[in-house]
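Recall from the previous chapter that SMILES is a line notation for molecules. Here it describes copper (II) ion.
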Amino acid sequence: MAPNLEQQSSARYTPTHYLFNVFGKLRLMLVAGLLLLPQLLAAQWNATVGAESNDLGRQGLAFLPNEIWIHAGDAIIWTVEATEPHTITFLTDGQIRPPFNVGCPGFSTGSAVFDGSSCVTSPLLFKDAKITVSFPVAGNFKLVCLLHSDMTGIVHVLDPSQTLPHDQEFYDRLAQTEARALLDDRDTTKPKHLHSKNGVTVGGGEVVATGAGTDTLSVMRFSDPVITVHSGDTLEWTNEDSTTSHTVTFGTEPQDLVPPSANVTVDPDGARHAVLNSPSDSVHSGFLQAAPQDRVGLAQAQPGVTRFRVTFSKPGIYQYICALHDGLGMKGKVIVLP
Ligand SMILES: [Cu+2]
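With both inputs in hand, we obtain:
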């Protein structure tokens, strides 16, 4: 009698078959493991963006740390730790720097991959927002913020066969040390130039160089938030920050903050000037902004407009703000006595 099918198969299923089967499964697992190995070995690093004082008045415009060494395949999670927004941006070599609101063009949110062949940028990221960028290819990549021109860093992506110089704990300590050094810098507390009696400094800034690029401290405050003058006096505001723009804005904020309002004239030395006749009048300085840094190969920029003058013809209490940073507490008051 012919053996039934069950007997046939059990007759074939010898211990040798069993071992083959086990090894086959092991081999499959090994192949799968090898395929997954890069993902298993890929590290996730943490870095922070921006730092601020408790009163929000001192803003560290910086990648903290601003230099980091990782392996190809690793990812870095950047978390914004300041109220002032920032972008995390990798442009390609030779790419013209785009405006922050255009992106490079467009934006990545949540996660992105940068291998140097096409740009990656986040939109403006506000406090506690994150972006994860993975780096599949070795290379040295410059990191910038599209909103703040002197805020740069470098990510060194090494082949996985190379040894990394630092661990996450080192970068955490470095980030804290760099943030404290920026925020504790007191050089910006005093105006850097001697201004006339009726002068107010509109924020101050310092650019700090590191091996990987530059960090900036910007003080988002008017040096004399309350100042007293007499009617007929002219008060002069000066932006002493090379990176950050500010405005001096009385009354209603215009939609477009870049140009001055129509009631602003230009003095012979290029400073903007307005006359206010009543605390209910509106006037807007437009962006007070230093000229950008010069660099070989770039067109010469015009001198920046860093000064705004207001002549107060009538007594009263005149409130004003920096329309860009009033949310950080950048506000002032002019008391005009008869
Ligand atoms: Cu401001």
